[in-house]
Amino acid sequence: MAGLVLKQLSDFGDFSHGKELTEILSLNNNEQINSVRMSPDGRHIHVVLRKPKVSLVTFDKYERPQLAPNQKKLDLCVNVPIVDIFYLEHHGGSSSGAAVVAVVYESGKVEFWKFQECKSGWHLLQTSQLCNSPRAKVVSVCACSNLIIWCEERPPSESSPVLSATRNKLRYCVCRRDFEVNETAVSLGGVKIALHNNPDFTVVSSGEYVHLLPDLKSKPLLNISKFFLSWSPRYDSFTVSTTCKNTPLKKLSAKESDFMKLVIDCLGYLSPLEPPEICSFSPTACGGLLLLLSTGWLCLLQKDGVLRQVYKLEDNCLVNYSTHTSLGMYEDTLVLIMGQNLHLIDLNCGTGLEKIVLMSEALLYTNRADMCTPHLLSETGLFVVVSRGADSRDCSFRIKSPGLSTVESIHPGALLVEAVFEEACKYYQQRSLSSTPLTVDSLKKGGRFQAPISLASILFSYLSADKLMGSLEAELKALVSLEEVKGTLVRGSVKEVEAVCESLVEKEVLRLLSSPELDKEALLYLNSIFSVFPSEGWKAAQSALQLHYNGEGFLSSRAPPDVWKTVLSAAALPVFELLCRSVFHFQPSWLPTFLELAQKEQGSTGLGLGLAASSWSFSSGRGGDCNERNVPLYKRALCLLSSLNPDRDQQQDLEVELLLVSGRPNAILQALRILMSKKQWYRVTQVAQKCCKQSPLLNKEIFTILLCEVAHHRDLDPYLDLLWTLCPEDFTVTTILNLVLKNLPSPNTPSHSSSFLVTVGLLKPLLRKVLQRETKPSQRYVDILQSPSFPPPALPRQPTEQSGMLVGQIVTHTGTLLLA
């Protein structure tokens, strides 16, 4: 943008009463002029005056000047202050000559005026009342899409006690009303309160967002003035931000409309801080906001709440409220008018492009017909910034740069070198013990700091040889790709945005899981990805681990060992638990097979050496104590499952599967007990048949538990043939009968003796099998083996105190060994 000049578009001679407009603007007195507003098409200029009396004066540019003398002007002289004027979108699709403007008064009254050049000029459509309360006082107002949004002050009730200083500052509320512009009227919806009990806010509309900025002129409470809000009526959400932090403090739903509840948890964080004040602002077309801070920084508040520092004014440029400022953004160029200096700034790199010294103060405005070009309004007319090649004979402003007769065109290499020295100044100044400020000139001439000089020389040489562009090609391609993604997110359809998000999440998850080591920040970032994009995160995890489910309960993975090492590592925010949570949310039936796969990968040959000394390897002994960083995977999965609060039956089913998949004896026995408590006997026998093959010791434990159950009840009778096949090789008849005897129902129960007889009768096939295994069967068991296939009828009931004697008699009858 080198070589720019100002070209005059109008000297106000083509506006009605142009001389009066020039006289008003030449007053250059903020005490007399309240505000100046320009219509989107540049044909109407509205000036709100404070003195000598409150009034609104409008100056119009006619396409057919001969009609001007007969047209009615929009000039108002009132007793109530005018808060603001703004244009409304006309949804009727009429011609550009049908402009509708709203004039809002402090009392809440609003007048809707319409301009029609072919008829009578300006005429009043209707008068309405914005506020519900006649005592309300409007302090700021704007239009956003089809909404009129304002901040009003509500005086305390006469019956209420005297408010404290704090409550007295929080007597405002932010309200909204829908509107629709028709040919003959403006339809208004009902009043809705968006925020209440808030301080005096200036409402600023930008795209689909409304920014609520503290009005520092009203001397708000110290802590309250340290932050501002961004409100999205479309998404019904608030963002709380501050000028000393480049990311939002919090984002939350707008369902909570009490101001103090929104910000109460931010006050403690902000109390020791002193954020710079907002001295000037201007909305952008994309929902953002340009902010000029008291520190001299020009910042861009993006619609996502990120505050980006763009440009720092010279140290001798003091910014305060008395300084005349005007801001504007035109594509990739920021324009700042400060006093009589016009700054052109590159938005992408934050570099000052040109500086133009003006003859008088001016205001920036946007012309709807040419929104990419800066337009200016001054006391001598309307101007536009053009290239030097354009005709500039009518320019009323003097263009100069310090020490030069024309604006200096700076070489990109020189800009880069200058940026190196500016950053070096900041770096060395922070580490210097001297109070003497470092400057770019002192770095260049002093010779004490060789690093920035060397770097500047290298960069300049690279630029001269066109080598820097080649070395930065990969980074530049990444930046271009990023810009394309951002463009898709802004302009794309819902499906396109979803596809972009899914692709980005997949790349980020793969990048993080492929990292040799994840630090705490990376783990937090990975957790945030799964929190914000749960569905996309789950798909990305399947892709990164290359999971394949064959539909028959088998899950496989082709991911390299390094990825699994990252997944299975123990950390403050472990990845394994994060993936288990995602599996449970989207495919709960996969959780046991995922645990089985993780255990397989943990013990695989490829990870053997690394896992031997790893903090996430298995504990050495069965049932051994595991320290915090040496917890088996199945216990980590069980701990996560209990925290997810699933359905009780679903939780128990998954617990059983996880315990069985672990392959650990204690876990398998715990799973059996859960199944027995649920009386799922068929499942019990299936698990027993499968797990008894793992080891003789586990076989003995399982058979003992089931044999005790047989002695207690008859629920396992249909499965006895299967159970007898599980009898350990070292079990003898004595062992079996002793176990049965010890686990019979209490001797005090009347059915004790009959239960024993039934149990002994059912044990006959098992006892015959065990006796056949012995090389020399003992004749002492003949009584048992020759007993009837079915137990004899139950004996007559005896008194409870005699039940022990009855059992002894039965045992003597069945074999003397039972009494041994």
Automatic annotation (TrEMBL):
GO biological process terms, semicolon-separated: lysosome localization; protein localization to membrane
Cellular component per GO, a single term: lysosomal membrane
InterPro entries registered for this protein in UniProt: BLOC-2_complex_Hps6_subunit, HPS6_C, HPS6_N, WD40_repeat_dom_sf
BLOC-2 complex member HPS6 C-terminal domain segment(s): 418-797
Residue ranges of domain BLOC-2 complex member HPS6 N-terminal in the record: 4-385
Domain of life: Eukaryota
PANTHER family the UniProt entry points to: BLOC-2 COMPLEX MEMBER HPS6, HERMANSKY-PUDLAK SYNDROME 6 PROTEIN
Protein name as catalogued: HPS6 biosis of lysosomal organelles complex 2 subunit 3
Species name: Neolamprologus brichardi (Fairy cichlid)
